[in-house]
Amino acid sequence: MLRQRQRMDYPVLAACLVSLCLYLNTLDADFAYDDSRAIQKNQDLLPETPLVNIFFDDFWGTPLTHSGSHKSYRPLCVLSFRFNYALGKLNPWGYHLGNVLLHAMVTAVFTCLAQKVLKRKFATYVAGLLFAAHPIHTEAVAGIVGRADIGACLFFLLTFLSYMKYVEYRTSAHMASHRWLYVVSVCVFTVASLLTKEQAIAVLGVCATYDVFVFHRVKLQEILQLHIFTMSHFRGLCEGLVLLATCGISLVATRIYFMGNKPPEFAPSDNPASDSDCLMTRFLTYHFLPTLNIWLLLCPSILSFDWSMESVPLVERLSDYRNVYTVIMYISIAYFAQVILKQLNQTVRNPYLGLKTQMNGNGVHHNVNNGAEILYSMCSSPGKRRLVLMAVAVILMLFSAKTVSRNFAWHTEEKLYTSGIKVNPAKAWGNLANVWNEQGRTSDAEEAYRNALRYRGNMADVHYNLGILLQEQKRFHEALESYQRAIHYRPKLSMAHLNLGILTAQFGQNENAAKIYRHCADLDTSGLKDPRLHEATKISCLYNLGRLYTEEERYQEALSVYEEALKRRPSHYAPQSLYNMMAGISEVYSKMGDLVTAERWYRKALKSKPDHVPAHLTIAKLLQKKKQYEEAEKWFKKASAIDSKDASIDHHYAQFLTETGRHIEAEVRYRLALSKTTPDFELLFNAANAFRQNSRDLDAEGLYRKAVILKPELPSAHMNLGAILHINGKLAEAERSYLSALKLKPDDSMTMANLQKLRNLMANTERKGTP
Description:
Elements: H1 2-22, H2 35-40, H3 75-88, H4 92-118, H5 121-133, H6 138-142, H7 147-170, H8 179-194, H9 203-215, H10 220-224, H11 235-258, H12 272-275, H13 279-298, H14 322-345, E1 347-349, E2 356-359, E3 365-367, H15 372-378, H16 382-409, H17 413-419, H18 425-438, H19 442-455, H20 460-472, H21 476-489, H22 494-506, H23 510-521, H24 531-551, H25 555-567, H26 579-591, H27 595-608, H28 613-625, H29 629-642, H30 647-659, H31 663-676, H32 681-693, H33 697-710, H34 715-727, H35 731-744, H36 749-769
Antiparallel strand pairs: 1-2, 2-3
Helix pairs in contact: 1-4, 1-5, 3-4, 4-5, 4-7, 5-16, 7-8, 7-9, 9-11, 13-14, 17-18, 18-19, 19-20, 20-21, 21-22, 22-23, 22-24, 23-24, 24-25, 24-26, 25-26, 26-27, 26-28, 27-28, 28-29, 29-30, 30-31, 31-32, 32-33, 33-34, 34-35, 35-36
């Protein structure tokens, strides 16, 4: 008996090994698709986030009660991600390994179920291997967020196996009392499946169907006549149905409660059929989609990372050829249902033993184990067996090759989105554009964004991302139009409002920019997917509005705006993200002469985040203004100790040293800053001034030349370059630089005076050179 059980476990081991081998190449894959929001940006994975939060937030870290939540309640899946984060932070290898191991477990449990149902080793081998190798599983296993599907499937199967055991023990006179152990198992695994992915609640319906139609072979007539509630031999069935109903109602009620008693809101792109106003379109499309899914099970030639956004075009007319496939599917279902019902109607029930028996021609009962006997009899001849073996082998090889090939598509986002262009071109092009933009392939990214909009012109996110790309290329007017289109298609898109305000301010339209910032800050962001991001963006709008007022020297209004931002800071918003605003407040206080209050704000910032470099630098500058030079230098050194690679620290420290007359030390600091970064205009200009003071005239000349290239529109850049060229004896070049400065600022007295001195020198030089 032990040997037989060991042999029966070989299909399980074989299926597990195949599943592991086929998915080993996913371990090197990167994060992709929804992994960014579900893992990389999900605050619920962080150790500092209270663990209890995962039971009140959705799969993406958004509170379930928020109107923008998709109500995807999967705390067990998020808990597994949190475990991965604790072990390896954001290294994708561990997350992929978790998916592969989980898939192997699901394969093992499925094969055990097949073994229990089919009761034949060959059939169990075929079922287990087909499940392990089927390419349709790649989207769940290779995509990390697919863990919700794998985990739900595991608990689904365990629930079903537990219910089968419960039914078996329920009918046994000697083991009836042990059935309650399996009742507990059914409830626990059902809860676990529902907490992994919400669709797993369907397992209760599967258990009920098994109990009614497979185990008890209840006829449709008996259901319609309510015999299952009145006849004594159905008492065990009623117990099971009550158990399932109680479990289901309790779980659904709890789930609704956690959702805040509100249904989820889906965008039209998520479910285009439901968004259609035409009843016929909804009816035809809903009936075609199961047909497509069944076809993918039979022939998984086309797979996709996403099937939204009308990747399956709506069936809008009766003349659509796809309706033929729908009709064929339902005719096939009706035919097989008829065959099954006919088989069931030929059986009779033994109310004492709970066994199913069938009448033979002589009126003698014999046991019927399962419907698979019919299939086995079809393969009785050796020739047909060889044909079946060959067919199974070919299918397994094709499935395995397709699975491995599809896994490679998940290795990088670029490969994944490229593979999805044929199925979902709008989303694939949009995501591919983001990847290329991050890689610096801006021309390819722009073309991809425009390709996405050609397929679906109302995608606000794509318009917004295109706007960012154009803004980085200094194509400001085109970027402005992209942001306006994004707002047109999604008026609540706060990031587009923020960037629109920034661009408008750059154009010098401060009044319009202020209106945009204020409108953005007061947006109703309910219904949006990422409320944390939008609430943070609204605070950023207030920060920019305060900066705008500060630049216009409207200090009291700026101060009022900053105080409003602090008061409106949402509870989930990390305090350190407000440091820039606190710096703005301190700057306002400084300009109004209240250095004590400014210092208090910065010290408060440091109390929240002791290693915040900008606060260290600003405190140092405040102490410098108060002429407390020793204390100020201590803060500069503290900042340098926190981040020795930050060139801005050396820059500010060098400015301090220059002001206190320590020019040699300032030069050393400037050289450090220049070696650590690609210098901006301010660093080049200030360093050139310091080198000039130390008589490093040639070094200063080189830096001034670079500064002029960066900001040729500034008259001071040309004037200082002219001055150093004047000193270095390059008189003709110096004259050109002075003239460029005067062209930009004709009334600058210093430049005119220097030009006059230069021309006098040039005239004297010319006279001395004349014989």
